Amino acid sequence: MIGFGLVTPLTSVHARAFFYFGGKSDKTPVVSASTEAQNSQTIAFLEAATNVDPRKAMGGGDITIIGDSAFISDAGPTGTIADIESSGHQGKVSLYVVRSGDTISQVANMFGVTVETILWANDLTRGSVLREGQHLVILPIDGVQHTVQKGDTLRGVANKYKGDLDEILEFNNVTADQKLSIGDIIIVPNGKEVLTSAGVTTTSRSRTIASYPSYAGYYSHPIPDGHKTQGTHGYNGVDYGAPIGTPVYAAAEGTVIVSRFKTGSCGRTCFGGYGNYIVIEHPNGTQTLYGHLSAVYTSVGGRVKKGQWIGEVGNTGRSTGAHLHFEVRGAKNPL
């Protein structure tokens, strides 16, 4: 299973943590607590963990480790993830939450990668303007990331991005005859995106949902009594309307990797627009996301069973009415 960790922000943070015990959920968190990290302590930790010079950028965004250097499952939005990894994020792909005033070049300097590496990993252009709360994929080295599609080989990936096969093998800790699975992510050190005749870069991240595998019967309905209000949109998501407080159930067994809940008002920009939300990673390598919740009954690291009550329908974040936003990452959305 992918290892997760959080590098805390530069500025003071107030984190609300829910501690979850056992495989059973009830209508209230077992324990809630708030903690505060002071600037001097947090900056010292960032410098030690990531060798970042905090003076080079506004910084201060959450930096969430989303997996080893390659062969990782497609990642969902970032969250406040517990269990800080003191070893830092070298060799790992991270998600960075943009803070007010950040620019692409500043973020690139912060992580010691080129501007092009940031652009390619996030489908951005040099004219793109970052917005506060935006999530950026950060590679641990200059280059590109490639999501494996049907028929791909490591040598073919190396040729596509003008990378060195031996460097790919060494960096990703794989062998030349390694079997690739659709959806795996490979990092190509010093690779370059290919320009089309129109001058637009081609990217593996633009693959269509149609290329995702199907897992018939694997996922159950997270809100059986809801009614669909919007079909597939965004990142493979669908919306189901239901009254606030309607139970939301885990679509499949797995481990909670993101559990975000804000006490009080959670407006349109709350947690990137998802409002209070949960992400679960499943044994088949996929992830499901449950957004706009009014209540959250899980915490990071908790194991959940298929059909377990994990939250309640709400109207938090960028929402125009009470509903559940349900996404499937790495597979076709069965709904």
From TrEMBL:
<dbReference type="InterPro" id="IPR018392">
    <property type="entry name" value="LysM"/>
</dbReference>
<protein>
    <recommendedName>
        <fullName>LysM domain-containing protein</fullName>
    </recommendedName>
</protein>
<dbReference type="Pfam" id="PF01551">
    <property type="entry name" value="Peptidase_M23"/>
</dbReference>
<dbReference type="Pfam" id="PF01476">
    <property type="entry name" value="LysM"/>
</dbReference>
<dbReference type="InterPro" id="IPR050570">
    <property type="entry name" value="Cell_wall_metabolism_enzyme"/>
</dbReference>
<dbReference type="InterPro" id="IPR016047">
    <property type="entry name" value="M23ase_b-sheet_dom"/>
</dbReference>
<feature type="domain" description="LysM">
    <location>
        <begin position="94"/>
        <end position="138"/>
    </location>
</feature>
<dbReference type="InterPro" id="IPR011055">
    <property type="entry name" value="Dup_hybrid_motif"/>
</dbReference>
<dbReference type="InterPro" id="IPR036779">
    <property type="entry name" value="LysM_dom_sf"/>
</dbReference>
<feature type="domain" description="LysM">
    <location>
        <begin position="144"/>
        <end position="188"/>
    </location>
</feature>
<dbReference type="GO" id="GO:0004222">
    <property type="term" value="F:metalloendopeptidase activity"/>
</dbReference>
